[in-house]
Records
---
Amino acid sequence: MNSANPELQLAEDFVRQTNCHVFLTGRAGTGKTTFLHDLGRKAGKRMVVTAPTGVAAINAGGMTLHSFFQLPFGPFIPGDANYLGRHRYSREKINIAKTLDLLVIDEISMVRAD
C-alpha cells in the first residue's frame, strides 16, 4: 500500500495486526488523509472516522465527534444526573460502538482536552 513511505507502511501493518492505539502525525501534505482512506478500504476492520469540525469530517469522509457520540452543543458535566436523564443513545449507535474495531479521530489536535 505505502511502499513509497516506509513509516506509513509500518503504521498500516501495526493497525492491521494489533488492537493498540496509534497516534499518526505529520506535516500537511504527507499523506495522512490518503492513508486514512486507504486504511478504510483495506484494513478489514469495522471503522468509524470522526473529526472535531464539520469541514474536517467531510475531508476525512466521516462525521463529527459530536454527531457520533451524540454530544450536546453546549457545555455539560460528564456524569451529571440531569443530563443523563434527558440523554439516550440510539440502539444503532450503541451497536456500532460495541462492535467497532477502529475509531479514527482525524485532526485530533483540534480537539479540546476539557
---
Amino acid sequence: MQTGDVTTLYSDSALLKAKVQAKLEWRYENGNAQYPKGINVTMYDRNQQVSSTLRSNYAKYDKQRDSYFARGNVIVNNVAKGETMKTEELHWDRLKRQIHTDKFVSIQTKTDVVQGNGLISDDGFVHWKILNPTGSFIVEKPQ
C-alpha cells in the first residue's frame, strides 16, 4: 500500500519517544515498509524535549526486527550537545535503542571533527564510539 505524508509515533509509558515522518511510504502485507523519498526522525527525551534528529534520502523498516535502515546522505544531530554525524548508511535498532554503521562517519562536535569507519551509539546519539578512527582535527572559531 502506498501512502503519502506519513507520521508514525513511538511511545513508552505514555511518553513520546520518537516520531518518524516520510513524504512517501510503501507498506507491505508483512508489515515491512520502504521510504523511497527518505525519512525524518525526531527523538524525544524523558522531558518530552527534542534530543536528536535523523534524516536520510531513503529508508526501510523491518517489522520482524523492529529496525530501520537509512541510506543516502544520513545526518544525525544531537540537539543538546550540538553534535552532527554524517554517513551514507545507518541502522537503527529500536529494541536495543541503538544506532550503528560500518561505513565511514564524520562527526562535528563543538570543538573538533572526528572521522572513522564504523560507529555504535545509543539511539539518542549521546554516547557514541567510532570503531576505527582515522582522523581528528580541531575546528577553529572565526575571530
---
Amino acid sequence: MAMTYCSIHSQAGQLQQKKAEEAQKQLEQLTNEELHLDEQLLRARAERGEDPERDALVVEERELEEKLEALQKKLINLRKYDFNALQKEIQVAKTAANRWTDNIFSIKQWCRNKFNIEEQTLDKQFEIPPDLDYID
C-alpha cells in the first residue's frame, strides 16, 4: 500500500514538474519573440524617419475618423425621424384611437339601453363632441 501511495505521489510530482518546465519554456520563447518584435519595431521607425506626407495622412485619418463618428451620432439622432418607423407609429396610434372610439360608442349604447337616456343628453353630460367618428 505504501508503495502505491509513493508511486502515485511521485507521478503527480513529475507531472507538475513537467508542466512547470513547459510553461517556463513557453515564457522564454514568448519573451524572445517580444524582444525580436521590439527590435523590428525600432528598426522600422528608424528607417521610416521623418516623413511630412505620412504625418499629414495620419492627421487626415484622425480627422476623418472624428467626422465619421460625428456623422454616426447624427444618424442615430435622425433615426427617430425614419419615415417607415413613423408610419408604423401612426398606424398604431390610429388603431388605438379607433379602439377607444369604439369603446365610447359601446358605452353610449349600453347607457341608452340600460338607463333609457337619449344620445344627445349623454353627449352633453360627458362632453362628447357630436362629430366624434373613427379615424380613417
---
Amino acid sequence: MQPDDFTHPRTASRAALLAAMFASALAVAACGGGHDDAPAGSPPSSSAPSPAPAPSPAPAPAPSPSPAPAPAPSPSPAPAPAPSPAPSPAPAPSPAPAPAPSPAPAPAPAPGPVPDTGATPDLGPNVLVFDPSTPQATLQAKVDAVFATQQTNQFGTERYALAFKPGTYKVNVNVGFYTQVLGLGASPDDVTINGRTQVDAAWFNGNATQNFWRGAENLSVAPQNGESLLWAVAQAAPFRRMHVKGSMTLDPGGGWSSGGFIADSKIDGNTGSGSQQQWMSRNAQFGSWSGGVWNMVFVGSDNAPAGDAWPNPPHTTVAQTPSVREKPFLTVGSDGRYAVVVPAVRSNSHGVSWLNNNAPASQTVPIADFYVAKPADSTATLNAALAGGKHLLFTPGVYHLKETLKVTKANTVVLGLGLATLIPDGGVTAMQVADVDGVKIAGLLFDAGTANSPSLLEVGTANGTADHAANPSSLHDLFFRVGGAGPGKADTSLVIHSRQVLGDHFWIWRADHGDGVGWTVNTTRNGLVVNGADVTLYGLFVEHFHEYQTVWNGNGGKLFFYQSEIPYDVPNQAAWMNGGANGYASYKLGSQVTSHQATGLGIYCFFQTNPQVKLGSAIESPTAAGVKFTRMATVSLGGKGEITHVINNRGDTVKDGANNAYLAQ
C-alpha cells in the first residue's frame, strides 16, 4: 500500500517518492471471464491527396520490490511543489508558453537545389557542428551554454542539435530539453566521446519523470574514471545507434524515472534500470541487464535477460524483431560531403545493425536532394519542395504551418534535427502522407495549435488498399503533444491508414501539466488510430486522452511494448462514461478485428482530480482465435482511482490498497 501522502512521481517530493517505492508490493493476477465488445469509434476523416504518378527523383529502396536491487535512498533535497490538477515542475522557472502564431511570411518561390553536393549545407544557427580540431575549452563552453539554456526549458521554443564529425573528443555533454546529440559518421564508432553524454535530474530534485524531448544517436561514449553513463530519462528521449564503452545507468540515483527507449545500440557493461517503471529495448546488445519495475520489454536484443519468470521480474523477451527499418541519419564523408543514410528493412533480425557486417543494405541520399528547411520558411515553400521531388530536412526550431504539409511522392524522406517542432495553425492537419511506398518520417515533434485539428499526422488515405509489403513506409521517433506549451486542441494525434507501416518509437501525449491544461482546455478524443492492415509498432507510449488512448481497427497488427496513462483530470464518473461502462479503455481493438498480437503492456491510472473515478477494463478486445494479448500490467498510482479489470472483465482490480495487477493470458 502506498503511504497516504503519495502523489504522482511527476510532482512528488523525492522523500515521498522513495517512501512509495519501497512500500508497495508486486501482485500477480489471473482470473477468468470475458465479453465481446462494441466496435471502436470512427476516426477523423482524411483529406490526404491522391498519390502522385511520378516517383521521387531520389527514391530510397511506485514501484514494488523486484529481484533487481532497489536504489538506495539518499538524503531528501528541498521538496518539490505540492501537487495540483495541473502541476508545474520546480525548482525550474515557470515554463514559457508557446508564442502566438505570427503572420505568415510572403510566399517564397519554389525552392531550387541547395548548394552542390560538395558544399556544406546551411543547417542554421542551432546546429552546432564540431570537428576534432575544435579546441577542447571552446567545445566544452559551447555545449555548456546550450545546457544552461535547455536544462529547465521544458516548454520553451529553443531547439538544438550538437553534431560531431568523425574523430575523438574529450568533453562532457549534459543533454537538456530539445537537444539532440549526434555523430556524423557512417558508424557509431566513427565518433568517440571520452567523457559524459548524460541526462541527470538535478533540475527537478532527482526526479527524472519529466526528462522529455531529447536524444543521442550514432556515436560512441567512453565513460571515464569508472563512471557509468547516466541516461535518466522519461518518454521521448531515444538512445539510438549508440555504443557505450562501459556501463549504463537509467535512473537518477534513487529518484523516480519513467522512460524509455533504446534501439540499435551496444552497451559493453551492465545496464541498470533502477527505478525505471518501464523500458523498451529493440535490437540492442547488452553486456548484462539488471532491474525491472512493471514492464521491461526486449525485442531482438542480444544478451537480454530471460523472460521466463514474468512478472517477477517483469521482463518480456522476444528473440527476433519481425520487421524493422532503422531510422535515417545524417552523415558527413571524409570529402566533407553531407548525406542522409536510409537503411533498408531488416526481417527476423537480432542485435545491432552496424556490427559484424550485420548492416542491411542502405541508400545514401546526397544533401542536395533535400530542401533544408528553416523556421522562417512558409508552408507554401515546403510544399513546393515536396511537390518538386525534394526530401525535407528540418533544422532545429518551431515551424508554424498555415496549411497541411503534403507528402505525395514515394520514397520521400522527412527528417528533423534537434526536435524540430511542427504547429498547425487554423485547425489544419500538420502533415498528410499519400498512400504511396517507402515514405520515411523521423525526428519530429507535432504540437497541436490553438484551433482544433482533426489530426496532427495522417499516413495514407482513408480506405486505401495499396499493398506496401515490398517497400513499407516507416515512422521513427515521432512525438505528439496537445497542450503544455499553450492551449492546444486535436481530435486525434496520429492516424495510420496505410498498410504495412512500421512504427519505431512514439510518445503521444495530452499534457497533464504546463500551460493550457485542463479537462475542457486541451481537448482531444484519441491519441492513435490505426486503420491499416499489417501495421507493426515498437515502443508505443500514449497518455491522458479523453476517450480511448489507442484505437486499432486494422487486421494483422503487431505491437511490442505499450505504456499508457488514463487521463488524470476526469472531473467525475458521469463525465467519463462510455455508454453504460465506466470510462474508456486505454487500448481498444475494433470488434471486426480477427488477427492481432500485442505483448508487454502497462496501463496506469492516477485520477488525481477525483479518486472515486473507475475504469472498467484497461483493454477491450474481441475474442477471436487470432487475437493474442500477452503480459499485461495495470497499476493504480498511489491508489488514486480504480481499474476494475485488465482486459475484457478479466484480471484483478487495482485501487487503493491493491496497486498492481498482472495477467499473462
